[in-house]
Amino acid sequence: MTKQALAAVRRERTPAKSAQQFDVHPDRITELKRQLQERAVDVFSAAGSVSREPPVDVKTVHAKIGVNSA
After folding, report:
1. Which one of 39, 41, 66, 70 has the fewest beta carbons within 10 angstroms of its own beta carbon?
2. pLDDT by residue (tens digit) across 9-58?
3. Are 36 and 9 in contact (CB under 8 A)?
């Protein structure tokens, strides 16, 4: 599905030609394109966000699992 959506966004060919190439209905190509465009914002906004998980103290983890830090 990723290839179909990317092809639609790139406008390499019409939805009808993409549908024929990937053996799906043209409406599916249009829907995949819409979903990709809507969710791309989530992907890039999440990439720059700060993690909500507490930082990991490596020394504490090593102590728990018995790894010598020497």
Report:
1. 70
2. 787 788 888 888 889 899 998 888 888 888 887 777 765 565 666 777 88
3. yes
Q: What is the DSSP letter of 49?
A: S
Length of the chain: 70
Please state the pTM of the whole predicted model.
0.52
Q: For residue 14, which of 34, 3, 29 has the smallest C-alpha distance?
A: 29
Q: State mean pLDDT over 54-64.
A: 81
Q: Note the pLDDT of residue 69.
A: 56
Q: To the nearest 5 percent, what fractions of the chain are helix, strand and coil?
A: 65, 0, 35
